[in-house]
Specification:
The protein is an alpha/beta fold and 276 residues long. The protein has helices at residues 2-18, 87-90, 92-97, 120-134, 149-159, 214-220, 255-275; strands spanning 34-42, 48-56, 61-66, 100-105, 141-146, 167-171, 196-201, 227-232. It starts with a helix and ends with a helix.
Length: 276
């Protein structure tokens, strides 16, 4: 009966989504081969969350990306983004050119997500997003979180239904307790089962995301059969704070290298999954 109730709830989410007007194409992307739209995703708990979805005709998988900081990207219905500096936001076109669709959710009502990403409420929200993305029929689904967003990716992976996600990517994960009151360890990484890639920049000076913790994060993923730790180096600094987006913490200046190395892992993970 519990399974039946969950299935009915998910079908309700999908039904609501199909009843909505067609998503609008935005003016953010200038590449004619890339389609970017604003999606409104209904939530089982009530209300909805707005997301930006960008893809190309050759997309073979979708990455749900969780920004750091407050999580609020300031996404308007017209597709304009007020806070576009975060690594996952400013690079979405690059992922599309590599053949990956990208969906980036905003926060509900532009609320601050600090301290909320490891909660049961946010786990259910991520579940609803995953279901919605699968109904877009855009291939395997990966979760990628950066900085504070890594907490959301871990929480989502822990609560995703078996087979719903193909893998998890954590970049510059918050591993030291700070003012938000939560870290990736708060989301129970030991319960993550899909393949995991942990990326850390040796030159990251963010005090709550030390690169030397990358191995500790990987070691905590005891439930996954495949955990890879990838170390990178470099980056420039334009932000005033070490944890800012335009610093080595946000891979500023080395975006292409980092994306290429993550893509290599994503491609290999897809190939491996098709052989099983």
């Amino acid at each position: 009966m519990v399974v039946l109730a969950i299935c009915c709830a998910l079908l309700s989410v999908v039904a609501d989504a199909s009843d909505r007007p067609a998503p609008r194409t935005t003016a953010n992307i200038v590449d004619p081969d890339i389609d970017e739209r604003v999606m409104t995703i209904p939530l089982r708990a009530g209300g909805s969350v707005r997301a930006i979805f960008s893809s190309s005709e050759r997309s073979r998988a979708t990455i749900i990306m969780f920004p750091g900081g407050t999580g609020d990207i300031g996404l308007g219905q017209d597709g304009r983004i007020r806070h576009a500096d975060n690594f996952v936001v400013r690079t979405r076109e690059a992922w599309n050119r590599h053949g990956y669709a990208v969906l980036i959710p905003d926060t509900v009502g532009h609320r601050n997500l600090r301290g909320q990403r490891s909660s049961a409420y946010y786990a259910h929200l991520v579940e609803d997003i995953i279901v919605f993305v699968h109904w877009q029929d855009s291939g395997p689904v990966f979760l990628l979180g950066t900085s504070q967003g890594a907490i959301a990716a871990v929480n989502g992976a822990v609560h995703a239904a078996p087979g719903d996600i193909a893998g998890v990517v954590l970049t510059e994960s918050v591993s030291v307790m700070g003012s938000s009151g939560e870290t990736v360890f708060s989301a129970h990484p030991e319960k993550v089962q899909p393949p995991v890639l942990v990326v850390a920049n040796r030159d990251d000076r963010c005090n709550v995301a030390p690169s030397q913790d990358a191995k500790r994060i990987g070691s905590a993923m005891t439930g996954s059969h495949e955990v890879t730790v990838l170390m990178v180096a470099g980056g420039k600094t334009r932000s005033g704070k070490n944890c800012g987006s335009l610093t080595p913490h946000g891979y500023f200046g080395i975006e292409a290298e980092v994306i290429t190395r993550i893509i290599t892992w994503l491609d290999a993970t897809i190939r491996t999954s098709t052989l099983r």
